[in-house]
């Protein structure tokens, strides 16, 4: 499940012609709202150095909990701190 960095995976999904970014979404945790998750289609994010962007909003990569294909398969998941 976990190969390479999260940013490398997202770049591959967005830029590799063999991938279709419309088939993926990320799950993020909202700041200050434990357990409150939001699904975001990969096609609407722009990758930055330490952040990704949704329009003018920048969100740090560490907020991403999972990268999931539309069929439900988890392709990357943040390691648990337990």
Structural key phrases:
82 residues, mainly beta, 4-stranded antiparallel beta sheet, 3-stranded antiparallel beta sheet, 1 helix, 38% strand, globular
| Averaged pLDDT | 89
Helical segment count? 1
Task: Tell how many strands the DSSP assignment holds.
Answer: 7
| Domain module count | 1
The H-and-E topology, N to C, reads as HEEEEEEE
User: What is the terminal-to-terminal distance?
Assistant: 19 Å
Helix percent band: 10-25%
By secondary-structure content and strand pairing, the structural class works out as mainly beta
C-alpha Rg (nearest Å): 12 Å
Spatially, the strands of the biggest sheet line up as: 2-1-6-7
Give a short account of the largest sheet.
4 strands, antiparallel
Low-confidence stretches: none
Strand content: 35-45%
Tell me, briefly, the overall form: globular
Structural write-up:
This protein has 82 residues and is mainly beta. The protein has one domain (6-74). The chain is 12% helix and 38% strand. It contains one helix and seven strands. It has one helix at residues 6-15; strands at 24-29, 37-41, 46-47, 51-54, 57-60, 64-69, 74-77. The strands form two sheets. A four-stranded antiparallel beta sheet has the order 2-1-6-7, with helices on one face. A hairpin with a 7-residue loop joins β1 and β2. It is globular. The model has no long low-confidence stretch (mean pLDDT 89).
């Amino acid at each position: 499940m976990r190969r390479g960095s999260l940013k490398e995976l997202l770049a591959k999904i967005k830029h590799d012609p063999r991938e279709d970014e419309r088939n993926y979404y990320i799950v993020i945790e909202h700041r200050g709202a434990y357990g409150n998750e939001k699904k975001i289609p990969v096609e609407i994010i722009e990758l930055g150095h330490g952040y990704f962007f949704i329009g003018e909003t920048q969100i740090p990569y560490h907020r991403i909990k999972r990268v999931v294909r539309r069929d439900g398969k988890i392709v990357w998941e943040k390691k648990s701190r337990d």
